[in-house]
């Protein structure tokens, strides 16, 4: 456990690489399938809603499961289950049974399993690497994650264009199964659990996670900011922006896939720099600069969505494509510096025995209104001009960022290097 690149860390990372490439392929292909099939912003918003809602609803339970059962076994089973669901969807396409309803139901199960998986893996990481390597480890994992989503969207757009949704679902299913097999070889020896998980204990554990957040001075401002930012930011990125790129600007499937991947190129680059400079940089400055850059870049991107800008550079033109490519890469770099530092702070603040449930409570608290945001965004696209809607979301993100800078205590930026206690 002394060195970062141990067998466990490599297997842990390898499992994520394989499954995330498959997910990245699917995450760009399904929106394209919906847009090409329906051309409806409301359908896009509905899919984003059913993709996010199960993750959020299951989050508190996923945290309790992660704290009361073997986290390695949870990782393996959830990957197997996700692979099984994706392969069932692929067979549905082959047999002609696929529809938006079937796709939505399958996504509900995938999102629920992913929520349980995420809670356990996030809590498990500090157990397999030392605290002094945690920021660097998170940076490396962030680079790995973003690299898979660079490959995934580009491959997803190409595979969808050549073979359709069937091949995309099949590849995603196989990737989950391969990931589960690699995770079997992780050497993990958790502490024995003294209690069985009953309904009463489940309720108690869930409340303990939320009570920890309420009493954690440095975490609460992060929740308030993230809830507002997620409501408008996730809606902008997952619903409004794809709609604009395809229906408003007129980019091709391949251009759309590259632009989806460009954010991850920026995150990959940002995390590489962060892993190299993690012991030299002031974490508070990293977070402040990251948040400021994100809000500013959202504003600049929104300006280029206006019709006068599209007329100047040309509908679906190479010049407009290049501008968005650069801006989205810069946005990804800013996001990496901010989000990786915040995630590391959270892991340092939370004791191991409650880490999964507290991280899940945190994720639930900051994302609970996100499904409403994406659904409202899809609905609003039917009535409002897309460029005005995107700019309105951007202005709300700027306001939330300013309030966070004014209200957040020092603990939000620089937690003590020791675990906090539940009061």
CATH class type: Mainly Alpha
Count of alpha and pi helical runs: 15
Count of individual domains: 1
Q: Which segments are poorly predicted (pLDDT under 50) over 5 or more consecutive residues?
A: 417-423
CATH topology: Growth Hormone, Chain: A
How large is the share of residues in beta strands? under 5%
Terminal CA distance reads: 31 Å
Q: What sort of overall outline do the alpha carbons produce when their principal axes are compared?
A: globular
**Average predicted confidence as pLDDT:** 81
Using the CA coordinates, give the radius of gyration: 21 Å
Query: N-to-C SSE series?
Result: HHHHHHHHHHHHHHH
Question: What is the CATH homology-level superfamily?
Answer: MFS general substrate transporter like domains
Q: What is the number of E strands? A: 0
Helical content (DSSP H or I, runs of 4+): over 70%
Q: Any overview of this molecule?
A:
It is a single chain. The chain has 423 residues and is mainly α. The chain has a single domain (7-185, 196-412), classed as Growth Hormone, Chain: A. Helices cover 80% and strands 0% of the residues. It has helices at residues 7-38, 41-68, 71-94, 100-128, 134-163, 165-183, 199-215, 220-248, 253-277, 283-304, 307-313, 318-349, 355-367, 370-380, 386-407. Helix 2 runs antiparallel to helix 8 (220-248) and helix 5 packs antiparallel against helix 9 (253-277). The longest helix is centred in the first third of the chain and has 32 residues, at 7-38. It is globular, with a radius of gyration of 21 Å.
């Amino acid at each position: 456990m002394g060195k970062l690149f141990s067998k466990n860390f490599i297997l842990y990372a390898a499992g994520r690489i394989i499954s995330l490439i498959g997910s990245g392929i699917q995450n760009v292909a399904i929106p394209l399938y919906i847009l090409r099939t329906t051309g409806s912003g409301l359908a896009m918003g509905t899919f984003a809603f059913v993709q996010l809602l199960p993750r959020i609803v299951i989050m508190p339970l996923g945290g309790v499961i992660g704290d009361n059962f073997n986290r390695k076994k949870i990782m393996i089973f959830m990957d197997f289950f996700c692979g099984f669901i994706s392969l069932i969807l692929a067979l549905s396409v082959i047999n002609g049974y696929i529809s938006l309803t079937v796709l939505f139901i399958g996504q509900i199960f995938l999102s629920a399993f992913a929520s349980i998986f995420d809670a356990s893996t996030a809590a498990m990481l500090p157990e397999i690497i030392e605290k002094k390597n945690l920021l660097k480890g998170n940076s490396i994992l962030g680079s790995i994650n973003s690299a898979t989503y660079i490959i995934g969207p580009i491959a997803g757009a190409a595979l969808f264009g050549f073979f359709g949704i069937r091949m995309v679902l099949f590849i995603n299913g196989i990737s989950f199964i391969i990931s589960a097999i690699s995770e079997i070889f992780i050497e993990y020896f958790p502490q024995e659990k003294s209690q069985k998980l009953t309904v009463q204990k489940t309720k108690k554990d869930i409340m303990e996670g939320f009570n920890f957040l309420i009493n954690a001075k440095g975490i609460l401002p992060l929740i308030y900011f993230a809830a507002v930012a997620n409501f408008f930011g996730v809606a902008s990125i997952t619903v409004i922006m794809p709609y604009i790129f395809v229906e408003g600007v007129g980019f091709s499937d391949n251009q759309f896939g590259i632009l989806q991947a460009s954010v991850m190129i920026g995150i990959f680059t940002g995390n590489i720099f962060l892993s190299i400079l993690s012991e030299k940089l002031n974490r508070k400055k990293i977070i402040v600069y990251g948040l400021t850059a994100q809000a500013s870049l959202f504003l600049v991107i929104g300006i280029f969505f206006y019709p006068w800008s599209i007329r100047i550079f040309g509908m679906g033109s190479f010049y407009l494509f290049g501008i968005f490519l650069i801006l989205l890469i810069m946005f990804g770099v800013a996001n990496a510096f901010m989000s990786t530092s915040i995630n590391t702070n959270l892991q340092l603040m939370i004791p191991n025995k409650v880490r999964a449930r507290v991280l899940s409570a945190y994720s639930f608290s900051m994302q609970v209104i996100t499904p409403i945001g994406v659904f409202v965004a899809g609905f609003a696209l039917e009535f409002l001009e897309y460029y005005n809607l995107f700019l309105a979301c951007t202005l709300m993100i700027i306001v939330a960022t300013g309030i966070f800078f004014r209200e957040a205590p020092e603990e939000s930026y620089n937690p003590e290097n020791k675990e906090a206690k539940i009061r």
